[in-house]
Amino acid sequence: xxxxxxxxxxxxxxxxxxxxxxxxxxxxxxxxxxxxxxxxxxxxxxxxxxxxxxxxxxxxxxxxxxxxxxxxxxxxxxxxxxxxxxxxxxxxxxxxxxxxxxxxxxxxxxxxxxxxxxxxxxxxxxxxxxxxxxxxxxxxxxxxxxxxxxxxxxxxxxxxxxxxxxxxxxxxxxxxxxxxxxxxxxxxxxxxxxxxxxxxxxxxxxxxxxxxxxxxxxxxxxxxxxxxxxxxxxxxxxxxxxxxxxxxxxxxxxxxxxxxxxxxxxxxxxxxxxxxxxxxxxxxxxxxxx
Length: 290
Fold this sequence. Notes:
The chain is α/β, with parallel strands linked by helices. It has helices at 3-21, 28-34, 39-50, 54-57, 63-78, 87-90, 103-108, 147-157, 167-177, 185-188, 201-210, 221-227, 234-242, 269-289; strands at 95-100, 114-122, 125-132, 135-141, 162-165, 192-197, 219-220, 255-256.
């Protein structure tokens, strides 16, 4: 396991503690002790990951922050400005295009399709990615012990495709996807990625709405239902969000309940909170820099 992945799991453990204890305002020594690291080393690892200190990161873990982001999106919808809160908020976003497989392709289960896949370190732990000539068809965050399970699930969905383990190829995609971190946000804004998805017309409509949520913003299930013109379909929206297999690019981590609860997240609530905080911190830094 790479140092990057090991450090992420330390950070995740710290975020779990912070989310439960933020009202106590724990100091750096206490937080570092929870992950068995020296305060100096932990501060450096955490700052390398997100660009701010654990103490400053606390603000992105509060219910008030989550509710504020939902209200921000509500105002944005009413103002018909779903394209983004500002030019600053868009600088981190990748240009993502979604293409659904045709009914014939769906029935063929991937026949005549070659798909390259690999496992890589990311800012949020290990991930699995699969890419065909028609676009990215899977991106999931995984724990090492479950990596085989995720691959077998993917293989069943594309059972007649030719699956080729080629991390040297898929690594380039990982770099492009996660280049929207502290050092390379400007470059990522001009990138473009094609996604190949398997889903119903309704699911694809929901996923297309998700990719319109700007980096660092949050929306509720109800808001997504309103965006797609089916305000009473909140439960169905939740099912479509859960069916997403291209994480981060189709950002289901940006969907929470209207009350500010994180809701369910197959790949871990703490990881979802880490992603929300990581994006929020990067947006704030960009505002300050701008």
